[in-house]
Amino acid sequence: MHVAIIGSGPTGLVLGAALARRGHHVVAVDRDAGPDPDGGWARRGVMQFHHAHGFRPQIGETLQAEVPGAYEAWLAAGAEPITFTLPDGRTTRGGMRSRRETFERALHGVVAATPGLELRRGHVDAVTVEDGRATGLVVDGIVEPADLVVDASGRSGRVTRSLRPDAELSGRTGVAYVDRQYQLRPGAEPGPMTNPLAWQAELDGYQVIVFRHERGIFSVLIVRPIADPDLAALRHERVFEAACAAIPGLDTWTDPERAEPITAVLPGGELVNHYRRQSGLRGLVHVGDAVATTTPMFGRGIATSLLQVRELLRLLDEEVPDDGIGPAFESWCDREMRPWVADHVCMDGAMLDRWRGRDTDLDPDLPSDRVMAAAAVDPVIAESIGPYLAMLAGPASLDTVRERARRVYETGWRPALAPGPTRAELSAVVEKALAAPVMADRT
């Protein structure tokens, strides 16, 4: 086939390379030019490119299966494999420590050399449609015919928006975050960790997360409700530093004697979850964040995208008829992807309720994060959450212990908040930092 892909982020790159290896002619179009020879790479318009990411085992497994050499190039660029120790003493792969830039640079370098794949810089104006079937793209005013069009343009892609129904499942979280990358100084050890990938702590009215990356680099996130305008000032360097110094755990990670910032403070917009269905047009398939978007707190984004890539490749390998690819893929996404989005909608909504001072609601199904929290006092729950955490089983796998978790909460037990300033106290820290004289940026 001649395949035209909208977007050459991780989804488009992996899918494009895998299709080209199967003998198809593939053109992946993106407005981004890719890495510069001098090491720069802006990825303009892709906010999440510069923000923290978690890389689950499914990502490395997909690279090894579909893009030979990409996993090795990622390792050579500094990515660090993570190993988890199970309760019985066995070890299992736990993903990779890496910045997204490191991942994409390594992937792009390998994919760009794939015979049969053209990475083209350009603007996709439209999808051409004839008799209910996508027939190609219009790129900078020129028609690019295709037997199959793939929308891998991400959650904000606009080209196909008019061709699709509105999001079937959507949840505006009411939260946003700022983050910044640091690097440990020589000889400095990491700060507190919740697991080998990250440290996560919920305080009174907000949340903090540290994602470890390669070579001592880490990202610090402060997740806040957008309804609190005071905390929007965390985008200022001096304010962010003052907040980190005031929060136990973050003060250890960001201690100037132990770590130095290597980026500016990176603000992000409101986080969203959404699940969108296929367009119904023959010859057009939507994949990746164009289908399922989840907030970054559990680091599922790239994993869910590449799992979709693997399923779409499976359908194409089985030579499913042209008019059956979209429905078959949508059916799989309904089963496998939609539950992850629904899981996040539930968890993120409940988290915002807690930040508003509301108690855990025991009437509906408990959010998954509250089920996992109850594992601290119920060993049966603790033994049951592993497959869910590893994304080897979906959110429904927790149904067997949701009632046990409910009984834990009915006793009056609640997870303890991490020590540190309340949101009101953090707002006071922000106000004081804003009023302080402006010092020269350390970066």
UniProtKB/TrEMBL annotation:
Domain FAD-binding intervals: 2-36
Superkingdom as given in the UniProt entry: Bacteria
Molecular-function GO term, any one: monooxygenase activity
Keyword Acetylation: no
Keywords in alphabetical order: Monooxygenase, Oxidoreductase
SUPFAM superfamilies: FAD/NAD(P)-binding domain
InterPro entries linked to this entry: FAD-bd, FAD/NAD-bd_sf, Geranylgeranyl_reductase
Presence of the UniProt keyword Oxidoreductase in the record: yes
Protein name from the UniProt record: FAD-dependent monooxygenase
Species assigned in the record: Actinomycetospora termitidis
